[in-house]
Design brief:
By secondary structure, this protein is mainly alpha-helical. It is built from ten helices and no strands. It is elongated and about 55 Å long. It comes from Nesterenkonia halobia.
C-alpha cells in the first residue's frame, strides 16, 4: 500500500508542476491543484504539508526531471566540445515550439524569481542555486568548445570564461523570462548565447 501512495504522490507532483508552471505560485489556486492532481485538499496537505510544500516538491521535480538532464552533458567528465551548442539548440527548439511548456511558460524557477514568492528566503536561495548551476555548466561547456577548436593557444583564460559563462547564463534566463511576452526576443537571446561559443 505505501508503494501505491508513492506513485500517486509522484503523479500529483507532475500534475501540480504544470499548474504552477503555467499560473505561478500565487495564481495557482488550491481547487485548481485539486483538479489537476486528483487529490482533495486534505490529501494535499497530508502529503505535502501545505500549498508551499507542494510547490517545493514541484521545484525539486522540475530540477531533477526537466533542468538537470539537459545540463548533465556539461557537468560530466569529459565534456564534449559540442555539449553547450547542443544544449542551446535544444533550448531554442523547445522555446520555438509554442505547444511546449517552455515555449508557452518559460522556466518555472525564473517565473518564481519575478513573482512575490521570490521574497521568501528559501525560494530566493533556490533560484540563486539554479542560476549558479546553470552558469557553472555553461562555463564547462564553453571551456570544452573553445579547447576543442584547436587554436593551439592552450586553455582559455579563466577570467574570460567566467565573464562569458555569466553572459551566456544571463541570455538563457532572459530567454526564459521573455518567452511569455516576446517570443521572437526570447529566441534572439538564445541565438546570441549560441554565437558566443
Amino acid at each position: 500500500m505505501p508503494r501505491t501512495r508513492e506513485f500517486a504522490t509522484d503523479d500529483a507532483v507532475v500534475a501540480a508542476r504544470s499548474v504552477f508552471w503555467e499560473h505561478g505560485y500565487e495564481q495557482a489556486s488550491v481547487p485548481e491543484l485539486e483538479r489537476a492532481t486528483g487529490l482533495g485538499r486534505s490529501s494535499i496537505y497530508q502529503a505535502f504539508g501545505s500549498k508551499r510544500g507542494l510547490f517545493d516538491a514541484c521545484v525539486e521535480s522540475y530540477l531533477d526531471e526537466v533542468i538537470r538532464p539537459r545540463l548533465r552533458p556539461m557537468q560530466q567528465d569529459p565534456v564534449d566540445a559540442g555539449a553547450l551548442a547542443a544544449y542551446l539548440d535544444g533550448l531554442r527548439e523547445a522555446l520555438a515550439d509554442a505547444a511546449s511548456d517552455p515555449g508557452r511558460h518559460g522556466c518555472l524557477l525564473m517565473n518564481a524569481a519575478s513573482a512575490p514568492i521570490s521574497r521568501q528566503h528559501a525560494v530566493a536561495e533556490q533560484v540563486a542555486a539554479y542560476r549558479a548551476e546553470l552558469r557553472a555548466a555553461m562555463r564547462r561547456g564553453l571551456a570544452a568548445a573553445r579547447a576543442g577548436r584547436g587554436a593551439g593557444d592552450g586553455e582559455p583564460e579563466p577570467e574570460l570564461l567566467d565573464r562569458d559563462a555569466e553572459a551566456c547564463a544571463s541570455l538563457v534566463t532572459s530567454a526564459f523570462a521573455l518567452t511569455r511576452v516576446d517570443h521572437a526576443a526570447a529566441l534572439r537571446c538564445v541565438d546570441a548565447a549560441r554565437a558566443m561559443i
